[in-house]
Amino acid sequence: MKTTCRFILLSLTAVLNFTLPMTSSHAQTPSALAQAFAPTGTLRASINFGNPILANKDANGQPVGVSIDLATELAKRLNVPLSLVVFDAAGKSVDAVTQEKADFGFFAIDPVRGQGISFTGAYVLIEGSYLVQNNSPLTSNEQVDKKGIRIAVGKGSAYDLFLTREIKNAELQRAPTSPTTVDFFLTEKLEVAAGVKQQLEMDAKRLPNLRLLPGRFMVIEQAMGLPKTRSPEAQAYLKKFVEEMKSSGFVAQSLMRHKIEGAAVAPATPL
Fold first, then answer.
1. 218-227 and 104-108: which strand pairing?
2. Residue 213's closest CA among 122, 148, 149?
3. Which fold has domain 126-218?
4. CA-to-CA distance for 137 and 119, rounded, in angstroms?
5. CA–CA separation, 62 vs 40, rounded Å?
6. pTM of the predicted protein model
């Protein structure tokens, strides 16, 4: 079947919708399972462009990355068309799945998000780091949580949720999205920026007089998830799917193909 693409821009959320009819090389799963995953008849995957380790755009503006590879494989196995619903921030992607405007997505595991989303085991581990200006007196992660320190973080990101719980003395200030965190940090003249290590490294190359603090302040467990209202059968199937994608080498090969460094395949999760 010839692949077609459809582009729709939704002004309020800056979302792109890519509909990709799929054929399957696997045995067709029972229609009841496909219906449980895709009640509209199309499997809608919530994709977050705010994390370049998981999703990005190629030279033609098409979505690429391990998230897209996993979404495509899941659609093949369910033998249903795939629609990529693309967002510029993690919080918007979470809301889409929680509100069932998308059927599943790719998220950092977090108890707040877990109130409305059923997570699989992690498939990728990602480091969270701090960035400062070259002339900053800060030299270690342990020095960040002090009075008078203001930390820029992407609103609704995994780092925002984690630091909201963990930071006791410093002040969090939220950028609109994770990719804009460093620009926000500079514009507001803050002391620290927090985010995906790879994104911060790219920003440090793009902008002068910036450096990362050594080490990491957290490790993010990146998983797939679907609305908690979906059937137990669908939740169990997705968990098994992720474990197979790890054990078969699918995730590792995808990371290599997209030249992703600094992310590791997560260990097996007991089912």
1. antiparallel
2. 149
3. D-Maltodextrin-Binding Protein; domain 2 (3.40.190)
4. 40
5. 24
6. 0.77
Q: Is the pLDDT of residue 12 over 60?
A: no
State residue 263's pLDDT score: 86
How many helical (H) and strand (E) elements, i.e. helices and strands, does the chain have? 8, 14
- Report the distance separating Cα 166 and Cα 10, nearest Å: 35
pLDDT of residue 18: 53
pLDDT per residue over 138-156, tens digit each? 999 999 999 999 999 999 8
Q: Which of 86, 91, 74 is nearest to 36 (CA)?
A: 74
- Least Cα distance to 150 among 107, 185, 113, 109 occurs for 185
Cα gap 86→48, rounded to integer Å? 6
Return the amino acid letter for 205: K
Whether 225 contacts 107, CB under 8 Å: yes
Domains in the chain: boundaries = 9-125+220-265, 126-218
Angle between helical axes of 250-257 and 232-247 (0-180°, round to 10)? 60
* H or E element, residue 251: helix 250-257
Instruction: Report d(CA 228, CA 54) in Å as an integer.
Output: 23
Q: How far is CA 177 from the centre of its chain?
A: 12
Which of these CATH numbers, 3.40.50.720, 3.40.190.10, 3.90.1310.10, 3.40.50.300, describes 9-125+220-265?
Answer: 3.40.190.10
Angstrom distance (rounded) from CA 220 to CA 179: 17
9-125+220-265 shares its CATH topology with 126-218: yes
